[in-house]
Amino acid sequence: MANPALVRSSGINPITTSDAVVQVRDICKNYGDIEALRGINLEFERGKLTTLLGPSGCGKTTLLKIIAGLVPGTSGEIIVNGRVVTGPGPERAFVFQDFALMPWATVLRNVAFGLELKGMASAERTRIARRYIEQVGLAGFEEKYPHELSGGMRQRVGIARAFAVNADVLLLDEPFSAVDEQNRRKFQEDLLQLVEQEKKTFIFVTHSIEEAVYVSDRIVLLSPRPGRISQIIDPMIDRSATPDDIRRDAGYLDVVEEIWQGLRQYAE
Amino acid sequence: MQMSVSPAKLDNGIGASKEAPITRGQAIRIFADERRSFWIVLSLAILFFAWEVAGRIPISFAFPTFSETILAFGEMVADGSMLKAYILTLQPLVLGVIVSAAVGIALGVAMGLSEKAEWLLAPVFIVLQAAPMAALVPLVTFVYGIGLTAKTLAVIMLALPVIVLNSYKAVRHVNPSLVDMCRSFQGNRMQQIFKIIIPDASPVLFAGLRLGIAAGFIGVMLAELLITPTGIGDLITYHRSVANYAHMYAAVASIIAVSTLTLAGLQYVETHLLRPEKRRK
């Protein structure tokens, strides 16, 4: 089965790349008696979008939160830019599944919040926040409150907030799962543009195979109970085509099928 | 209250008669939709009307009509006895409420933030909240006599537990995702508490404060009726003893009105200062 769009590294241990911005070393996580993650070794390349994909209960969000420093691993270490980290840091920014916007603050203050916490002067953080609000397509909504926005717009606020702190690595925890299907597609297209423009490293968690194949440079498939890496797939999708053509492309559909075959054994 | 309803209705009547296509019924409906205060005024008007009717039947020789009560109220304001009573009543009330709010929110937030504080304090306040405090008021008199201290303590005893327990629950129910968000952007513990936890807890915090203040009013009335008659408690006791029922009801109704207005004022402060997004519906 020779598929030109599919280069699969068979590895539980992927080839070490010189330009890994985030390294995950032997991460295990237990919640009491429950083993959530076992022996995770991964490297995330600078400027790439890597997706953690798997059925629910495979620990993909847990792994993302361990990388973010929000949840401590039971053993193993996380190395960011060559340094072992034990908590959240300025080189990583998180986008939350439920948006995590402050309902009492305007869009502007929400987007600037990361900078506010760092103690940046009001005028400067407002200027930066306005730029990113415009970039995610929310110009004109600066003084609105989150409850006045749709789900999709709220997540744009969450993404703008993560961009505003200028972190090297963006961690996105199922960012589009609370967004309706139409907006989700538009979002995926916008995300690809942002990856292109911002030259940042993205680590993306999703349970949607199509979404993973569409946006990712590399897909890490996790198997559940305990969470382990089962497969690493690089879907070589030609992104110069229009979004609609990509979604009809045979290579794209083959990768989706390939992943589905790998995951169907876990479907209940 | 009655004063404000009549000109409004009058305006409506005039407007309706000028413009032919809009019937009187429609005009009233439009007016009612536009202003929520219309319903509040209407609700009070029905209550006062029922009171007036009940007083005129009369349901009891000791039950005055609404209009008699209003007249008695005017009389007591005019002769200064109402003002004098409020000066006395408000002292332990304001003092007790301020102490309860400050101490209660501080303790409740501490209990919400720290498990040790929770284990140490929660049982005490759960017992205190369950206890019928009126039974303890005589004990306070026994220890602290009949002065301001005893009355202030009575207010605190009623207001504090409910404020503490609500503040504690408020902090416990803060959205954990917001706290994670603050941590992920390297917010320190103080920023976490003051920029995330307290604002997110503020609706429940204020609900507790409202309940606490209402309990404080109960406390001060208990103190003034049980410890020694002063202030409004004295007005109620005195006018009852001389069978001035309209005056007695005026004193009772006035303290209810003050309590209601205080709570409404607190709600106004909350929505306008702390949670601006609640103003926009």
Report what the structure shows.
Chain A: Residues 22-249 form the ABC transporter domain. Chain A: GO terms for molecular function: ATP binding; ATP hydrolysis activity. Chain A: This is ABC transporter. Chain A: It comes from Pseudorhizobium pelagicum. The complex is a heterodimer of chains A (268) and B (281). Chain A is α/β, with parallel strands linked by helices and 268 residues long. Chain A contains nine helices and eleven strands. Chain A has helices spanning 60-68, 107-111, 113-117, 122-135, 151-164, 181-198, 209-215, 243-248, 250-263; strands at 6-9, 20-31, 34-45, 49-53, 75-80, 83-85, 92-95, 169-173, 201-206, 218-223, 228-235. A seven-stranded mixed beta sheet of chain A has the order 1-11-10-4-9-8-7, sandwiched between helices. In chain A, helix 4 (122-135) packs across helix 5 and helix 7 (209-215) crosses helix 9. The longest helix of chain A is centred in the C-terminal third of the chain and has 18 residues, at 181-198. Chain A is globular, with a radius of gyration of 18 Å. Chain B starts with a helix and ends in a 7-residue tail after the last helix. Chain B has two domains: 2-59, no CATH class; 77-279, MetI-like (MetI-like fold, Orthogonal Bundle). Chain B has helices at residues 2-18, 24-34, 36-56, 66-78, 81-113, 115-130, 137-144, 148-172, 176-184, 189-226, 231-241, 245-274.
